[in-house]
Amino acid sequence: MSTGVTRAFTIAVLVLVALGVALALSIVGTPTQAHQAALDQRRIDDLNRIRIRLSDMYTSDRKIPDRLHARASEALDLVDPESGARYPYRRESATRYRLCAVFAQESEVKDPQALPWSESWSHGRGLTCFALDASKQAERPRQILKIHASVNGV
After folding, report:
1. What is the spatial distance between Cα 154 and Cα 149, in angstroms, rounded to a whole number?
2. Beta-ladder partners of 146
3. Helix H or strand E segment including 133
4. Exposure b/e, 104-132, CB count within 10 A at least 16 = b
5. Is 88 exposed, middle or buried (0-12, 13-18, 19+ CB in 10 A)?
6. How crowded is residue 13: how many other Cβ atoms within 10 Å of its Cβ?
7. Distance between CA atoms of 82 and 24, rounded to whole angstroms?
8. Residue 91 forms beta bridges with which residues?
């Protein structure tokens, strides 16, 4: 092979490899995006465990607490896995409350009513709050506040 043909072949292979990597990243996402998605899933799992605990408290005590606190025996995370800040919680009545988290990415769920209950925590990027009622254990989370902001800016 001549030097010109070898060089053209090498460039073509490098271009194809670069296109393959770009295509893979566009489909799978970057490692940073995967990390952010994992953190958001952890936030959803935490919020769901808090929701279940508050429903259990309401069932036994007929009220929910003014402030969130975990007993030493509970595996209940009340803080964001990345920032370490407590999840915002506000009791609105004996049964109703708001529970919030700051998400790194918008959820891919477009119609949360079409999903099984456990997967219906639809959220935007930034601070998102959900209105919940502890007396309705089968209630789907209802998004009531979405503030699109940089995650570091909230």
Report:
1. 7
2. 128
3. strand 126-133
4. bbebeeeebeeeeeeebbbbbbbbbbbeb
5. middle
6. 10
7. 27
8. 97
Q: What is the mean pLDDT of the chain?
A: 80
Model confidence at 151, pLDDT cuts 50, 70, 90, reads very low
**H-helix or E-strand spanning residue 143:** strand 142-147
Give, in order, the Cα–Cα distances in Å from 117 to each of 3, 11, 19, 47, 137.
Answer: 63, 51, 39, 13, 11
- Taken in order 54, 60, 66, 70, the sign of the CA dihedral is negative
pLDDT in tens, 19-69: 766 666 566 568 898 999 999 999 999 999 999 999 988 998 888 999 988
Q: Which of 2-16, 33-47, 117-131 has the highest mean pLDDT?
A: 33-47
Q: Is residue 61 within 8 Å of 53, Cβ to Cβ? A: no
Q: Cα–Cα–Cα angle for 84, 66, 76, nearest 5°?
A: 40
* Beta sheet of 89-91, edge-to-edge order: 89-91, 96-103, 126-133, 142-147
| pLDDT band, very low/low/confident/very high, at 115 (cuts 50, 70, 90) | very low
Give the burial string for 25-39 (b: 16+ CB within 10 Å, else e). eeeeeeeeeeebbeb
Encoded tokens for 73? 């025996």
